[in-house]
Fold these 2 entries.
Entry 1:
Amino acid sequence: MEQHKIYLTEQEVPRQWYNIAADIKPLLTPPLDPGTGQPMDPAKLRAIFPESLIEQEISDQRWIDIPEAVLDALLIYRPSPLLRARRLEQYLGTPARIYFKNESNSPSGSHKPNTAIPQAYYNKQAGVKRLTTETGAGQWGSALAFATKHFGLECTVYMVRRSYEQKPFRKSMMNMYGAKLIPSPSDQTAAGRAILAAMPDTPGSLGIAISEAVEDALNHDDARYALGSVLNHVMLHQTIIGLETKKQMAKAGIKPDVLVACAGGGSNFAGLVFPFVPDKLAGAAIRMVAVEPAACPSMTKGVYAYDFGDTGKLTPLMKMYTLGHDFIPPGIHAGGLRYHGMSPLVSALLQAKIIEATARTQLACFEAALLFAQLEGIVPAPESSHAIVAAIDEALKAKKEGQAKDITFLLSGHGHFDMSAYDAYLSGELSDYEYPAEAVAESLKKLPQV
Amino acid sequence: MEQHKIYLTEQEVPRQWYNIAADIKPLLTPPLDPGTGQPMDPAKLRAIFPESLIEQEISDQRWIDIPEAVLDALLIYRPSPLLRARRLEQYLGTPARIYFKNESNSPSGSHKPNTAIPQAYYNKQAGVKRLTTETGAGQWGSALAFATKHFGLECTVYMVRRSYEQKPFRKSMMNMYGAKLIPSPSDQTAAGRAILAAMPDTPGSLGIAISEAVEDALNHDDARYALGSVLNHVMLHQTIIGLETKKQMAKAGIKPDVLVACAGGGSNFAGLVFPFVPDKLAGAAIRMVAVEPAACPSMTKGVYAYDFGDTGKLTPLMKMYTLGHDFIPPGIHAGGLRYHGMSPLVSALLQAKIIEATARTQLACFEAALLFAQLEGIVPAPESSHAIVAAIDEALKAKKEGQAKDITFLLSGHGHFDMSAYDAYLSGELSDYEYPAEAVAESLKKLPQV
């Protein structure tokens, strides 16, 4: 019998993260100080991040050791399995083999604890008492709530109002893990009050919530800020996904042809594909496909430029694909993908054509998600459904071409806290959003001049 | 490094179910025909079950082959891991080793697909077009919805009203898998109408919902009924849990001292412990502890007597521990444990003192569940929390006695669709229920005379 589930032992879980910066130095651009337009002085970041994470953010060391206490906490749920979607293959009638790395069985139901755990650890080591953060769909907030609980820190989560209203039980989970929740924009910060004054009915956005969380950390000496995506050290921590996947593929004799993952800020995509980039740079024919929502298409419709990471312009300027820091994406259910920018590392790879990007509409994603749930027995997060629909498209292309390709996608999380979205889809109430071309054009006019 | 996660390969998944009837024949009692008081003619069951399942219900063959198509569907999510709750051990400071078999990653989030899949398969083979069933917490309804979708059958689920109102997203999941949902008691059946007339505000119960589902099947030639617990063939299908666990323990060199599982109708308990009963009968010192809710304590407060399986008195009489078929349990959140009776096989083992039973209150269960979620990163179903609290008690007893026991409990499911219960617990709004002694006494007066 062919094996369709590829496990690792706990001993096989990687002991080091892979830092892609070591291998793509010519593509990298430094973050800039918005005040001076000059490369940011890392020391200036100390008000929001501990020294150890700043070091990781700017490191060009290829391999970085995972601390023992972090590994121990990761082993609560790692390694994660690599599974073959055999029933989906059969349904599609494709000669392709479809695999998926399943990150949905973590404490918060997604890949987010992979970085929440080290971030909480390094902050605890640095004597920080409380972490502030933003969350969209709630996946990241739940992950950080779990990690801070594990290491004995307090946690304040600014949750995008749209998701706060859509996902009551995400709040319950964060409460279980002892976090304090604030819907964003809120009246607790200057950034939030400014937005509320201008747009009292805004659904909020990750960009706004980031501003509030950063401001909170800046205003409190014993607090620091934690970001769930975009930054280099977050991508670093997520590479454990791809490193495990490579070991699993080696065990099962899989040579990957296509890797697919959704991308909001870029962290699950980076986690899966970065460890394969050296192989590609050495000549391996691996396609790497980042899938974003058509309603918030930073990579396929944005520009590659320096921009702020947040709406309130509190962050350094990062060179990335962006729709402009002022852009508030439509209220799609994939709340984790409602971000105006993209990880600078992922952006650099796209600009260099090492990876590809594609966009999908909401209804197509839910159609694929429902099919996957019925065939493979896992209800995907709306974010992850973007990877599924693109993987299906790749499998159908392989069918047309008669090629038995190995397609691997990342199931970044389950959708157990997104059932109201499925209700809306099943009842026919869900709609696609038009691409907000005008809003993007307006927003892009406000890009900082550097 | 010590291994804390014990996996099986797909090849190691058992190919046969274990039928305990072969090994405890002297303890068995036949179901009785309520009309005659004589042993039930199996042929009379054909209006509600297919022949193949009736054969399994009365079989005394020790091993029964798992059909290839059933195995194939089980492999969507099986084998399930055996995990060590190392952080819980450390927190308790116990010398005991605590393991748990994790059934929470199945398509419906519990052990229920283990029997939903074979039941759907055998009905499909028999030409049945539609299955009717009841569900309490929604775990069983979701599982049967998934299984009927897989094999191409229709599915009608009578969902206990209390759970229907508490768990909106369980309904969403059943809708995703294409089932038709009816809150019970309903006006769709004579049994439901009778209850509604007498008690318009009743929260419903599994006993009532069973009556409705059976009546629906009896009234439609192309429909049959499926039960998620209690019956012998259901216990049989669930033994895959314990058979896997035995293989995992053998691999890791674990000699079980105590096995713990919650018990409503008895199926997850049976699934874990039945395969170990032959070892116990042969002299192994294994304690087997069934944990029931103090609000619905069939084993610790009920009588061992012939009773109906449902409130509407449509089923054969089964000898079991019962609180009386007329008893409607208080509305505890562990909806899957709100059943007046207990599997006849489990009851026979309890009567013979091969297994033990204990009861726990709601608040103690939620306290243990929250601790487990924070330490081990899995939010347990309220049902499963009964097993957790009893396993913790065993581990604390081992600490007091200074004994390094191996305690294994069954995590029958996750609580992602029970978050409103956690909200109630966290906000201090959850209360214990007094043991409903008077209601039980009243109900026991109505036991059938045989």
Note: Residues 232-252 of chain A form the longest helix (21 residues).
Entry 2:
Amino acid sequence: MNSQELWKKYEEKMFIQSAYRLVLGTTSFDAETIAPHKGDAYRNERVAYLEGELFSLQTDPEFLALVEELSRRDDLSFQQKRIIKWQLTDMERFRYVPKDIFVEYARLSMESSQTWKKAKEAKDYSMFKPYLLKTIEMSKKLLEYRHSDLKGYDILLDDFEPGMTIEKYDAFFDLIKKEIVPLVAAVVKKEKIDDRFVYLNYPAEQQRKLTEKILDYMHYDRDAGVVAETEHPFSDALSKYDSRVTTHYYENNLMSSIFSIIHETGHATYNAQIRDDIAETYCFDNISSGMHESQSRLMENYLGRTRGFWVNLFDDVKELFPKQLENVDLEGFVRAANASFPSLIRTEADELTYPLHILIRYELEKAIFDGSVDVEKLDQLWADKYEEYLGVRPANDAEGILQDVHWSGGSFGYFPTYALGSGYAAQFMHAMAEDLDPEKCMEDNEFPKIKDWLREHIHQYGGLYSPAEIMVMATGEPFDPHYYVEYLKNKYSKLYEL
Amino acid sequence: MNSQELWKKYEEKMFIQSAYRLVLGTTSFDAETIAPHKGDAYRNERVAYLEGELFSLQTDPEFLALVEELSRRDDLSFQQKRIIKWQLTDMERFRYVPKDIFVEYARLSMESSQTWKKAKEAKDYSMFKPYLLKTIEMSKKLLEYRHSDLKGYDILLDDFEPGMTIEKYDAFFDLIKKEIVPLVAAVVKKEKIDDRFVYLNYPAEQQRKLTEKILDYMHYDRDAGVVAETEHPFSDALSKYDSRVTTHYYENNLMSSIFSIIHETGHATYNAQIRDDIAETYCFDNISSGMHESQSRLMENYLGRTRGFWVNLFDDVKELFPKQLENVDLEGFVRAANASFPSLIRTEADELTYPLHILIRYELEKAIFDGSVDVEKLDQLWADKYEEYLGVRPANDAEGILQDVHWSGGSFGYFPTYALGSGYAAQFMHAMAEDLDPEKCMEDNEFPKIKDWLREHIHQYGGLYSPAEIMVMATGEPFDPHYYVEYLKNKYSKLYEL
């Protein structure tokens, strides 16, 4: 069979896999947003079964042989070769795992996430602990079936961010520790920014209207995207033509939902701006976590927390909350959006202390996988590290180890990409500044110009290139975390007059 | 293999089919409620593929042989025998249809429904017409693959309501024509009930709160059910533990959403009250349309439009709309909820004129399938019949032939069950009255007592028994439409002092 005939066969098989992914993705979104919990057990069983069917398709020997055969063909286009390269890499994650273990893991992940949710509501880690320990055990067991050149936690780090290892993350976080920990300590000693207005009463109904304004401002295409409400904001993309972002409204916090929605829209924009000719290929799913996070952080922090972003929106905010913002002007609003103080909840953390929240999780994960920690005591270790790096200690499990969903679903190795993404974003912004002035664009109400730059230099490729390649293509040099550290130092030295 | 071993095999296969149904059902609900329309084409292709997979499972020769073998076994329990009986009947609908034709039909249905939606918005039948004609053609084509003892439209009628035929529906609708058409004409001549307050401004936000009150009042279990908003209200049940009801808020109509939500909750309650031991069997899906509709109509009309229903709710309604209802008391509210007048939109029609809306659709469907009508002119025929039976003529397609979704999805034979269900409900209410006084129950705030009666006599069985059997079991006699006609005559003679 000639290569293009083989390719057509490959595409047919991928279409089938994409059908399963679409309905399972939709069912998962439904479960996260609205499905009633009494249906959990019934749904879990059936979703686990179909995850198993998808797994069978992905590990079908005929399919594996087809991909391997294609990987040996020289007469494919560059694009086709790349797609096959990623597919082959990704297949290693599944192909040696027995199906029953995979299905057991899929079921455990669902049950564990659902239990985590209840445990968090009850602020009771003991409810969740057996699931967490089992999830850790299963995650370690899955590693035994990997045929990677890497070992242990390195495998997981590479899964979420190709090319990243403990060694490289250690270097990255050492720099954070060296430069940012003292910066946070210096800021703590300075006079606090007055952000008391942030914590007045902001009715959810009005916040919903603000969300619409922000989405309009960011030109989020409502004919190709959805916004919903969940306990934890997240984003998902069922296809290039179907983005999903969620947020959560706290009535005693104006900023929380604002920056959630800007963040998640950053993710959604990435998926929506992929090039048409690769939108229905493996490149759509192959975007690394760090790259994805760079685009959400870029929108949330590097754009969303600037004065420029709010020049054309602040009147709307005041109109929605006239009493609460009676004595607040644009400058005061933006200052409050950038106030830094040590806190307990990662998702609510400011831009400066944020990487320390990630540092804590990275150190714990590393220790879980090298066995240097007693997993029975993870909640205590969590609290200890918060005290060490941020000087605060959780008063209960909900603001401690129970705050994040990730571990319940077995996502170990994911957290570090959050800090890395912020690092990537700093370098992207530096490169963008050579072509346009983003604050000026926003002042001129030309947000699409910024989206165009991101599409041209980053988004259009989806996961066609590796993170390292995109970085060089978009910025002219390999990733250099000093852009990030310098950005934080400059910004916060000015803001707090250090 | 002994019968119980065979049965276990059958259950395993049914579990797999239920997994596909669950994710396809969830994806369909998502598409109806929130999915962005730019994702339609991508989703349609994939859903059609998986519908085909489910079709393959349902028509797998091994599965067919298994069911046939089970149907020959004498040592199954009564329940098992019944389940197999229904399964076998249902299989005839699919087993002789070529898969490619089935998939083509599934894809056409989705495209046709999506086009219908746009055409209705644009009030432009010409957009939808080619899809409707194609859907009619395909529906007729599918009939060629049926091996039923029945012919043509009778097959479709029997699909939706086992045992019903043109002959039986003709008799039913002849009675409606004889008794209800003159009653409607008599009511038109009387002084109108003052219901002007119904059409004041009722903000959707407040109506949403009223929906919550109504659901609480009806003891709708929010841990096993969802409420959402759609252009057309509907209900769905993904499992006994996961009901879905939707409604639509018109800000210039207080009653529309109220009776939609009561109606759909009637459907949801049926599915939620099925007996545990048959909740995950074929009996869950096997409830006939007429039986289902009897339970929604029972809640909407026979309970929801009585004074008793509102005794404990009316204060809440007034609190939500103090200005709009300033001069309305409980009696005036209930009278307005029962006002009858000829109108154009079926879903908004009052209880008395409602069966005439169905009569019109029944006559058109019958004519479509016996070929006595020029389908090119369906929109005109629709308008003519409205003029004939109700004395009103649609001013545009949206309030004429485009008003209902059913035909776009190929649901021919469904409409008549709506009137039949109202008929069933009258007889059920007559039987219920021998055991309890529903209005008194509601006045005493004991709605669950009514739900208990319905569970005991109807809901618990799901589709274990045929509609005719349930009717005899619950009421002691076969279906008799005179209960319905007498109910309408009594009620409206009193209300309008005829």
Note: The radius of gyration of chain B is 23 Å.
